[in-house]
Amino acid sequence: MRKEYKFTLDKFDTDGLFYYINTSQLGFHEIHPPRHVHSVYLDNVNFDCYNANVIGLSSRVKYRYRCYNHIRTSNNYKNKIVLESKGRINGLGFKKTWMLCSDIDISSINSHKLFCYGKNTISKPFLNAYASFNTMVCGVIYKRRYFIDASRRIRLTFDDNIQGYKPGLFPFLYPSNTMITLDYSVLEIKLSNETYNSFENFGLNKIPFTPSKHSKFMTFTKIINDL
To answer: Which residue in 4, 88, 117, 150 is a FRET match for 76, CA 20 to 30 A apart?
Structure first.
């Protein structure tokens, strides 16, 4: 379980963010080069996952397929795909991950085969919920930078060039000419439940931005499906 804070930043906020990262006494450092994150989100025909978020249910979950560094300009489309269950219980977030396949041309894998990979891999307590969320409602691609503090208790991600699309038969093959691009970036700070006391205890209140609610799943599901 973890506590999460999100911030939406326009292009004029970026300098302030990286000034904070570079000068913070928490000793943030980037743990790997920037990479592209590609997710395909699941729901059912009634959009129950989406509506649970709209209502604000204290306990809710969503499922997504995800891979990293799958970009159209690459000559090598082979990658791995994971299935993630991500949810929230009384304000605390959780995530569980299953490896579905690796070293595969993910741009050529169709939605039925991807769903079957999930059914054959996911652990039994999650199977019924996963099986009911069998509609791919949106695909999301963005560039992510990942930082961690010196104590390794605080993680910070910065997502930029966030784009969404309607998944087709081959859900990871995205239509570049019809992509929807957000005009802002997203900063997220994650604290484990064991180390979390308050936002201020870690000096995070010195970040020059105000926390806000944001969900890529919610934003693109609404836009793409006219909800």
So the answer is: 117
